[in-house]
Amino acid sequence: MSDTPNDPARRFGCPACGHMLTFNERRCGNCAEDAPVYNRTGFWIGLALTVLAAVVLAIIA
Ligand SMILES: [Zn+2]
């Protein structure tokens, strides 16, 4: 697998070594550091649901 910096699947850099993380990987492929929470799909799903709930509450309140 190539390690091109422009790969759209690699959005975030490892906080420990700067290696570009593959999205949804749990650990850095370079230094095995735990990937940041925002590199996981679940984080963004939770964020979207939270925003959606806030918008719905704002509309019906
Ligand atoms: Zn790393």
What can you see in these coordinates?
By secondary structure, this protein is mainly alpha-helical. The protein has one domain. The protein has one helix and two strands. The chain has a two-stranded antiparallel sheet. The longest helix is centred in the C-terminal third of the chain and has 20 residues. It starts with 11 loop residues before the first strand and ends with a helix. It binds zinc ion.
Count of helix runs: 1
Which structural class fits the helix and strand makeup? mainly alpha
Bound molecules: zinc ion
Element order, helices and strands?
EEH
The geometry reads as: elongated
Which spans of ≥5 residues are poorly predicted at pLDDT below 50? none
Would you tell me the overall average pLDDT? 90
Distance from N terminus to C terminus (CA atoms, Å) equals 51 Å
Main sheet record: 2 strands, antiparallel
Strand order of the largest sheet: 1-2
Fraction of residues in H or I helices: 25-40%
What integer value in Å does the Rg equal? 15 Å
| DSSP strand count | 2
Keywords:
single chain; 61 residues; mainly alpha; two-stranded antiparallel sheet; 1 helix; 2 strands; binds zinc ion
